[in-house]
Amino acid sequence: MGSISKAKCENGEHYPVSTRRDALRAGLAGITGAALQAGAARIASGAEKKDEKGEKVRYAELLPSEFRKRLAEKPLAYLPMGTLEWHGEHLPIGSDAIQAESLMVECAHRYGGIVLPPIHIGPGPTKLMDDGRLLIGMDFWGDAVIPPRQLDGDCYWIHDGLFASMIDGILTQCKRTGFRAVFADGHGPSRASWVRDIGSRQDYFGLKLFGVTRDIQGAWKSQIDHAARNETSLMLHYRPDLVDLSKLSKTRADKPLEMWVEDPIDAAAGYGAECMNSSIEIIIRKFK
Fold first, then answer.
1. SS3 letters across 174-217
2. Which regions of the chain are under pLDDT 70?
3. What is the pTM of this model?
4. Which of 29, 81, 87, 108 lies at a CB distance of 3.0 to 4.6 Å from 57, suitable for a disulfide?
5. Residue 31: its pLDDT value, please?
6. Do 15 and 93 sit in the same domain of this protein?
């Protein structure tokens, strides 16, 4: 028998604990009723990540029976393509995936289908510096970052060929599972890679594939800048709790790093909702 130690009850008294199992029981005994009530309140309030509209649409959350039902009703998969990339000091590093998944969840509620888990890796332009550092995407793009340097939080880049192989693997599994169509969108270079190969993949996999193709690109309103008015507005609509506008400069003369097109100072949740609704209407017309 192991050595006997003493554990303290909630009322302050001690009692002997002789095994690890007893120690576990002692620890559980110390959980207060208030803590249990708080846990129940979190579940009741939906903190366990259920869609506000009630019906689950995220692949990972579905029971097999729910999966079969949704697949039979609309065999359409949504693939959010994200990154872990610096989006200014005012937006979270995972903004690409958050925006893409949020739009697709709303679309699935309106039209049907199942939303795959977001991916957080993707391709992008690179630049090898004289000192051996590899810069990625916005680290050196245009004149946004002077001098070119690694921006905090960037952790997503893979070679375009590896990204293409990963997408092929996902499509193989989508077809095997019973999907007949896939819509993918999100991070700019990932979007471009998807659209570039959409025709050849349709022929090869026998799936109907959708993306932000040339015919809708001009009217598309989701993720069309980098941390400027569009993406900031979308994030204010989807996840205002993750946005900190106080990090932005109060003057337009001081343009934030990496941002172009319209100033994020002008961002608003209402405009984000308009951009989302417009984009969903466009893609649903494509589905039909």
1. HHHHCCCEEEEEECHHHHHHHHHCHHHHHHHHCCEEECCCHHHH
2. 1-53, 142-144, 253-260
3. 0.81
4. 108
5. 35
6. no
Q: What is the pLDDT of residue 260?
A: 62
> Residue type at 179?
F
The verdict on 15 and 124 lying in the same domain is no
* Cβ neighbours for 179, distance < 8 A, ≥ 6 positions apart: 71, 75, 76, 77, 114, 207
Considering the domain architecture, whether residues 30 and 58 belong to the same structural domain is answered as: no
Q: What percent of the chain lies above the pLDDT cut of 90?
A: 70
Do the Cβ atoms of 283 and 211 come closer than 8 Å?
A: no
Query: Taking a C-beta distance cutoff of 8 angstroms, is the pair 114, 67 a contact?
Result: yes
Between CA 77 and CA 75 the distance in angstroms is 7
C-alpha–C-alpha distance, residues 49 and 260, integer Å: 34
Per the document, the length of the chain is 288
Q: What pLDDT does 52 receive?
A: 61
Greatest pairwise CA separation for the chain in angstroms? 75
Each residue's pLDDT tens digit, 175-201:
999 999 999 999 999 999 999 999 999
Total domain count for the chain?
Answer: 2
Are residues 38 and 146 part of one domain?
no
What 3-state class would DSSP assign to 238? helix
Whether residue 186 is found in the same domain as residue 146: yes
| Dist. CA 182–CA 169, nearest whole Å | 13
**Residue carrying structure tokens 């172009």:** 260
Q: Which of 24, 25, 23, 19 is nearest to 3 (CA)?
A: 19
The reply to whether 22 and 140 lie within a common domain is no
pLDDT score recorded for residue 256:
56
Percent composition of the chain: helix, strand, coil (DSSP 3-state, to 5): 45, 10, 40
Do 252 and 187 fall within a single domain? yes
Range of the domain at 100: 51-287
Is residue 127 within a helix (H) or strand (E), and if so which, with residue range?
strand 126-128
- Tell me how far apart the terminal alpha carbons of the chain are, to the nearest angstrom: 70
